[in-house]
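Ligand: iron/sulfur cluster. Inputs:
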Amino acid sequence: MGIRKIDVTLCNGCGICVDYCPMDVLRMDDDNNKAFIKYIRDCQSCFLCEKECPEEAINCLPVFERRIPMAW
Ligand code: SF4
Ligand code: SF4
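Predicted complex:
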């Protein structure tokens, strides 16, 4: 997981982050027209959403979840 937060007070509802996300993590909320994180576990920390957001509303961290294989 890389994306941490979308600041809804900054989000202008443009939908750019949803279009750019290659992993289909983000969605627009029909009720308030703000972006939200729908499938956080699919995030690959590519930073495209954070980079492309015109309002700097998205915060990502370069953190990947890694599963450590168990020894038999
Ligand atoms: S790119 Fe930024 S401003 Fe546009 S919908 Fe996404 S979070 Fe909101
Ligand atoms: S960091 Fe990349 S994969 Fe994760 S939500 Fe943003 S655009 Fe999608």
